[in-house]
Predict the structure of Membrane protein.
Amino acid sequence: MNDRTSLLAQPLRPPSAGRAVLYLGLLVAGAVVGAAGALVQTAWFPGGLLLALAGEAGLCLGAARAAGARGAAIAPAVGWVIAVILLTASRPEGDFLFAAGGGSYLFLLGGMALAVICATLAPVRQPDGDAARLGK
């Protein structure tokens, strides 16, 4: 085996403690951005909706670029989804945060689509070597 295939055949290791703390912090940041976006998206429609979705996309892509891994884009997306899903549930008192309008559905579905797009566009770590494609 050459050096390139031996790098690809290594087993996966668990993340370091620093990376685990980073991902946990990004998860919390995603939840905060999701809660803030839920409040802003109805306030200044359609500008608030665009601002809320841009905030999520900026957090996911910025985290992925800064950490250089897809997991850094997925962690805030998971936090965003958890916060938004928890905010959509109606309470026994009858209070709810999302109205039954098109803007709310655009925020929910558009935010989930943005999370998938950001995770797909995130950079993937490549083994050391030249910049050529890694095919045979």
Notes: Residues 18-121 form one domain. The two ends are 13 Å apart (CA to CA). Helices lie at 3-8, 17-40, 47-67, 71-88, 102-121.
